[in-house]
Write a structure and sequence with these properties.
Layout (H helix, E strand, L loop, with lengths): L1 E5 L5 H10 L3 E5 L3 H10 L3 E2 L3 H6 L3 E4 L4 H9 L12 E4 L5 H13 L3 E4 L2 E2 L2 H5 L3 E5 L6 H11 E6 L5 H29 L4 H9 L6 H11 L10 H18 L4 H18 L7 H8 L2
Parallel strand pairs: 1-2, 1-4, 2-3, 4-5, 5-6, 8-9
Antiparallel strand pairs: 7-8
């Protein structure tokens, strides 16, 4: 299949590489040229100069963009995907607001295209290993076209029947992840200050009823954050929780615990943690401990 891929950040470049390895004919676009050039040199494929030209070379365009601002520019801006000729199906796999999803889907329909929100759960290791969970805002009828692509990038796709459902479900999942990140950080601080070695405390948490896959993957980052690669920043975590709280307000759901998590992330950003891994909240909480 002729596939366009927009957005070659930490997640996107790994997902795009898996599409190429599965045999798809890939063209890529990235806002800055360096990552696109590096991708083509190491993985293969072609580079499109604009999102519009990417669409013209593709049957399906997948994007993995950082936030609403980036997505709005790529889809609705000058030389964007919506008004371009070419790919009739557009799939955004990053985390964006359901409000923007609805806006893009409406614009796509008016242009004779179909837009699907299909965000993923899983960090860079899952992207590398094609082990992502994909939450697709469409019914399974889209599977005939998209399953070969989704299967190249993920371990499972759950079809959520309607556009916007993928974005909403991703925000719900991320609330759990970021809430857990905060709670694990507090638990480790409590154990440390009670005289328990941090590694031993993590051993217990990792083997307890509270264990989750993210703990195994993030263990080295919690224990030695400053010497590990960043996989997901505090700034992105704050963005995710903020979007979830916006959605909660729209649908009338109180979120007292997540409000606290949001305030912690905002304060951590203000103290210079914004580009550090989300696991750095443990070090942030250490700084708050007496």
């Amino acid at each position: 299949m002729k596939v366009g891929f927009a957005g070659l950040g930490r997640m996107g470049r790994r997902m795009a590489a898996n599409c190429t390895q599965a045999g798809h004919d890939l063209t890529v676009w990235n806002r800055s040229k360096g990552p696109a050039q590096a991708f083509v040199q190491t993985v293969g494929g072609r580079i499109a100069a604009t999102p519009a030209k990417l669409s013209g070379l593709s049957e399906v365009v997948i994007s993995m963009l950082a936030d609403d601002t980036a997505a709005r520019a790529v889809y609705l801006g000058d030389d964007g995907l919506i008004t371009a000729s070419g790919a009739p199906v557009l799939v955004e796999m990053g985390t964006m607001s359901p409000t923007l999803v609805a806006e893009i889907a409406e614009a796509a329909e008016a242009a004779g295209k179909r837009f699907i929100d299909a965000p993923v759960s899983g960090a860079t290791n899952a992207a590398e290993e094609a082990a992502l969970l994909i939450m697709a805002g469409a019914d399974a009828s889209a599977g005939a076209l998209l399953c070969p692509l989704f299967d190249a990038m993920g371990r499972k796709t759950i079809w959520l029947d309607q556009v916007g459902a993928g974005a909403a479900m991703k925000l719900a999942v991320n609330l759990l992840i970021h809430g857990m990140n905060q709670t694990v950080s507090e638990a480790l601080c409590l154990a440390e200050n009670a005289g328990i070695a941090t590694e031993r405390a993590f051993d217990v948490i990792e083997n307890s009823a509270a264990a989750a896959p993210m703990l195994k993957f993030r263990r080295p980052i919690y224990l030695d954050e400053t010497n590990q690669d960043v996989t997901f920043t505090v700034a992105l975590a704050r963005k995710d929780v903020g979007l979830a709280l916006d959605l909660a307000e729209q649908v009338g759901v109180p979120m007292p615990q997540s409000e606290i998590t949001f305030q912690v992330l905002k304060d951590a950003e203000a103290q210079g943690f914004d580009i550090r891994d989300m696991a750095s909240i443990f070090n942030y909480m250490r700084g708050k401990s007496e």
